[in-house]
Specification:
heterodimer, A: Nucleotidyltransferase, domain 5, 7-stranded mixed sheet, elongated, B: alpha/beta, 8 strands
């Protein structure tokens, strides 16, 4: 049986970790810059639709979201299993859209108000009836630039 | 003045603090940027406005989408995979067929006098149509336009459509305007 050689005392010098904070800070700044906090609590289930001719929504401050989908399990006893509309943090109906649009338009800078984009984030299985009602409401609210939210198609 | 000795601050825990922050941002971050199909809705038509003049049948490309997500294009059932080519043929009308749209000549800055199709794509869906199916149709129609614009950009300017200057994009767009009209959906599929 062989014996393991005893390492000499003080053989391997410790790795210098003085630059570790710098590295971590660099990563930290990267994530701080690239991060976007989730602004709303989702109350409806949205599994995004897929498409290939996508356009990126560049300026987040111009975009107002409308979510459409089946309520999450916790809300189904109250709101049923039909697709519902969510504006901000609440369930809403078609009638609420107009005031919601007006409100989010008021919160925008005046120079940006004409460039407002409404992004419809709908579940891929929701019926077009709801979407069309939303579109009609948006026309009435004079919010004509819309964006059907979709993810890139998996090849 | 007496020289006071300042003890050095121990920076050993700096890494721990930074790690803590890093992990916080790692958890809260969502990298995905929002993408989607951009569309413009038509403005509301005032009720007292006279109805628009009728469009000739040959100038309309009718796309119907029923509650079973099946396509009917110009009266014929069609698979979604064929829609793009059909739409391109309709817009371009390369053989100048009689049953495909007419052309009118307009003057476009940078390109001079060009023939522009009078065709309009009309899209109608059912209230029970699935959103994904509807979006796929929109997607294919957008793709048809994008491919035509890309081909024209290469031919006229020798560049990709995405790399064109604003003026050139405008010129291309006035030759291939996206004219997709959406009729009110029908409710044949029942309920709702």
């Amino acid at each position: 049986m062989g014996k393991f050689k005893k390492s000499k005392s003080g053989g391997q010098p410790a790795i210098n970790t003085a630059s570790l904070p710098d590295i971590v800070f660099m990563l930290l700044f990267f994530f701080m810059v690239s991060t976007t906090m989730k602004e709303v609590d989702m109350k409806v289930l949205v599994s995004p639709a897929q498409a290939s001719e996508l356009v990126k929504l560049e300026r987040k401050e111009l975009v107002t979201f409308i979510y459409v989908g089946i309520p999450l399990k916790a809300f189904q006893s109250l709101y049923g299993t039909e697709p519902r509309i969510q504006l901000n943090d609440q369930f809403a109906t078609i009638k609420d859209i107009q005031s919601y649009i007006a409100q989010s338009r008021d919160n925008m800078r005046e120079s940006d108000q004409a460039k407002m984009i409404v992004s419809i984030k709908a579940d891929k299985e929701s019926p077009m009836g709801v979407i069309t009602d939303i579109k009609q409401a948006l026309r009435k609210a004079a919010a004509l630039k819309i964006n059907y939210s979709a993810n890139a198609m998996a090849e | 003045m007496a020289k006071r000795e300042i003890p050095e601050v121990n920076a050993g825990s700096m890494a721990d603090i930074a790690f803590l922050l890093l992990i916080f941002f790692l958890v809260t971050t969502t990298m995905d940027s929002d993408t989607g199909l951009a569309r413009t809705l038509p403005p509301i038509v005032p009720e007292d406005q006279p109805p628009p003049p009728p469009i000739k049948d040959r100038n309309v490309f009718r796309v119907l989408l029923n509650s079973q997500n099946q396509l009917l294009v110009g009266g014929e059932p069609m698979d979604i995979s064929e829609l793009r080519e059909a739409a391109k043929e309709f817009i371009e009308n390369p053989a100048r067929k009689d049953d495909l749209p007419e052309f009118k000549e307009i003057t476009v800055p940078l390109l001079g006098v060009v023939e522009v199709s009078k065709g309009v794509i009309s899209l109608q869906s059912d209230r029970q149509t699935e959103y994904q199916a509807y979006l796929m149709v929109q997607n294919e129609l957008a793709a048809a336009y994008n491919e035509l614009r890309q081909a024209l950009a290469r031919k006229k300017f020798g560049k990709d459509y995405a790399d064109l200057e604003d003026e050139e994009v405008k010129a291309i767009r006035s030759i291939y305007p996206q004219r997709i009209s959406e009729a009110e959906p029908k409710n044949v599929g029942g309920k709702n």
